[in-house]
């Protein structure tokens, strides 16, 4: 395999070695981190293309540097395809990643000290939705809503009561670790009732929405942000979609408010990923991703695993391992030994710490891209159960790793020979 990246191998064997080992890790193991996926060869090539050489501060047709005729072509392709995919009035494809995209929205629409309302981090929210130590938490007054202690679901009447009490300027609907569909219409009604701007952050589920498997929040929201990696299966990066009336403020906040030159190699890759997402095959992919998550969660519940809210409507699930007498960290490490990558995660109302929480988070976007289906989910649930029951048994974990490698060899990873 050492000649797979001949130019890197020749110049920098240390990086080439790490890259080769990472290719082995990605193809021989199972990737269950719900925010990860495998991009296609065309997306990979665009990211590594000479568009990286070009500076293009500004927007198509209004740039601060010369030589923009081809950069404008790819940026316009990305914008127009994103509009078609999500039915958005205005799209900015320049945000470097999801966190800068959210920051740009706040910078565009809020004054420092304004009140924002988002889902609490340990209830499934994201750090940029108002975690006290993050930029969002330090710059704005944060009112966090939670999931219900019994159902582990967001109770929209409680969201409404909190909004009426605190009159936030911005309500954020979105999550990184929540397995149920959000009621976009109800969020809109609450925002209207209290005069708030409504933002959806669909970083995790954008691909499922683009593929038509989940309801699209764009018609209901003033602003929608998303990463372009995760289920959308594009390059690392993000975009902001908004109603025309916010277009100018959003564009100005991204550049020059927050960023300088856009990464046009990534924007070219976004354009390609959006073309892929417009293809009918992507509908199948997004549907199968959810079917796989539902099959996996059902099988795991049959083994006695405590899935938060009792199942999933999307690509992910959160498992409280307390009844299995293993912590999230112990399970994550044991699964790693067996070639299965997951992340430890706090569960709502967790009594343990984020560094060693009670749960793990699993998702199916990456394994669905490899072509796995319900039959593999049944197998996978059995393997996960075996790992958790034998988390201290190195011999057994090594044996399971062999089994995982065998199954993985039948499901090639895009972009890896
Ligand atoms: C992943 C994620 C982000 C941030 O994305 P980065 O690209 O990691 O900065 C923002 N919001 C939500 C809900 C996410 O899940």
Task: Describe the fold and architecture.
The strands form four sheets. Strands 4-10-9-8-7-5-6 form a seven-stranded mixed β-sheet, with helices on both faces. The chain has a four-stranded antiparallel β-sheet with strand order 11-12-15-14, with helices on one face. It has a two-stranded parallel sheet with strand order 1-13. It is α/β, with parallel strands linked by helices and 417 residues long. Helix 7 runs parallel beside helix 8 (184-194) and helix 12 (280-302) runs parallel beside helix 15 (374-389). The model has no long low-confidence stretch (mean pLDDT 97). The protein has 16 helices and 15 strands. It is globular and about 60 Å long. It has two domains: 45-278, Type I PLP-dependent aspartate aminotransferase-like (Major domain) (Aspartate Aminotransferase, domain 2); 281-408, Aspartate Aminotransferase, domain 1 (Alpha-Beta Complex). Residues 35, 97-99, 102, 126, 128, 174-176, 201, 203-204, 227 line the site of pyridoxal-5'-phosphate (PLP). Residues 35, 97-99, 102, 126, 128, 174-176, 201, 203-204, 227 line the site of pyridoxal-5'-phosphate.
